[in-house]
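Supplementary Methods S3. Complex input for the PBG-bound model.
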Amino acid sequence: MTGSVSRASGPSEQRDGVLRIGTRGSALAVAQTTAVAEQLAKATGNDVELITVTTHGDTSRESLSELGGTGVFATALRESLLAGECDIIVHSLKDLPTGDAPGLVIGAIPKRADARDTLCARDGLTVETLPEGARVGTGSPRRVAQLKSRRPDVEVVDIRGNVDTRLSRVADGDLDAVVLAAAGLGRLGRSDAVTEFFPLSQVPTAPGQGALALEVRAGDEKGHGAIATAVAAVDHATTRACATAERIVLAGLEAGCAAPIGATALVDDGLLFLTATVYRPDGTEQLTASHAATPDSMSRADLAAAARDVGERVVAELLGAGAAGLAPLGSAR
Ligand SMILES: NCc1[nH]cc(CCC(=O)O)c1CC(=O)O
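Predicted complex, serialized as structure tokens:
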């Protein structure tokens, strides 16, 4: 039996058999939360209600680095969850700070979408074929450094705003291209705008990119209640392990989501691989570390142990090679 998915118009009371999911109000957030809601309705038979929460990160026009990067999107959602106004909140994992949120736990990380970055350029252009001095929009220090390392001549324009606003700056002729996550474009049905997919092996993306995190009040993930059953049904073991390994790099370098760091993990043929790169913000230098571990089994506990193992080895190697001197890392909060 599949439950139904609806959108609440205002604050909503707790009712039996109904899961209330809090989401940011942007088109991307609503699209990805709706997809999660449908997955939850199908897996549990519960009705699912979407509750929109407006956050400072949505309304502010400041750049991501001015906002401080980490956490701007998460705080209002978390307050709403702690206040009991909803039962589960959905974040883009890459926007979620690595620090503890008192009273909350990540109850599920569903199967990840495409973790790659893309170029969305005019006239089918790619990083290689962009004209000399082309104007490329991104607000992410990692993407700036990665672009500059390949095309030092490119003029990077700091942009903010939702995916459609960013794409419109290319359509309007103001920018030659923007760099955007494949996952977000896919969720919005805008993959048609992509002119180049960057291989993860050359362009590692933000820790957790392409993955979502379902946060619940601590304790609600345990036992056989409706919330515990729901999050257990959509948690994806290998995605959780990969995202955990990538986020250990962020935490270990004491970096925030605005730091120039790329990390990418994958599970293949029984091995967990993790590669991470720290960039000098101008793209002239970078440090990469790559490690693999063999989990004893594909159980969540063994995968988690392997994720910690590779994560810690990658962090130690990067710090030992001088990563802290390469980039301003300390924007974690
Ligand atoms: N920081 C913005 C953001 N947060 C999540 C996504 C979509 C991709 C994802 O879920 O990882 C995006 C847009 C982008 O980076 O292009």
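The longest strand covers residues 271-279. The CA atoms of residues 135 and 174 lie 8 Å apart.
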